[in-house]
Amino acid sequence: MADSLPNNADHQDLVKSSRDKSHQDSSAQESLEQTRKDFVEFWSEMAHAWGINRSMAQIHALLYLHPESMTTDQIMEALCISRGTANMNLHELIHWGLIQKVNKQGDRKDHYVAEADVWEIVSCIVRNRQEREIAPVQHKMRELLDAYRVDPTLKESEEVHQRMNNVLEFIEMFERFSTAITPYIKGKHQQYLKTLVRVAEAGQALRGKSE
């Protein structure tokens, strides 16, 4: 029986191996958490580009890099935000289609998970920005043009009308482009999108040569 017991050297090796593994696990966890923090900060800085507020972007980024669901309390603790801020932005993210509320068996708290498909995320953002920003501007420009009457006796009257109409035409073209491209993003039609990019790049190259 004595022969089966590890000697002192073997015991020390086991202890060292255990400590090394524990240290590696700790370092890996610290690296993971730091990466999450950096991503949350980066995503929040990009919030204005996506048309959302900073807290909304932080919550979305946090949930996106957490495959497991998180509760409101966990989100509040991780981001140091109030319950009111958390609830308001969670509701808005659900409305955008970027996260969803899920139930966990045996837990009465609400849990949240982020949409993991980046194609779906982009299509949601494009659709919401179109509804919240492009559509209202388009509607207002139509109102302005309908209300304005060109006075031929004023030299600048026709020019003012034409410039406003140019803005409306551009907005309408952009709205049509967004509407047309969104299904291809949502459907992950990568080949079509790559072809579209190549055509745009080729056009840009030809334009550069002509200049």
SSE arrangement:
Layout: H1 8-45, H2 47-50, H3 54-64, E1 70-71, H4 72-79, H5 83-96, E2 99-104, E3 107-114, H6 118-147, H7 157-186, H8 190-210
Antiparallel strand pairs: 1-3, 2-3
Helix pairs in contact: 1-3, 3-5, 6-7
Structurally, the number of domains stands at: 2
> What percent of the residues sit in helical stretches (DSSP H or I)?
over 70%
CATH architecture of the largest domain: Orthogonal Bundle
The total count of helices amounts to: 8
Q: What form results from the Cα inertia axes?
A: elongated
Describe this structure in words.
- The protein has eight helices and three strands.
- It is mainly alpha-helical and 211 residues long.
- The chain has two domains: 107 residues, Winged helix-like DNA-binding domain superfamily/Winged helix DNA-binding domain (Arc Repressor Mutant, subunit A, Orthogonal Bundle); 93 residues, no CATH class.
- Strands 1-3-2 form a three-stranded antiparallel sheet.
- The chain is elongated, with a radius of gyration of 28 Å.
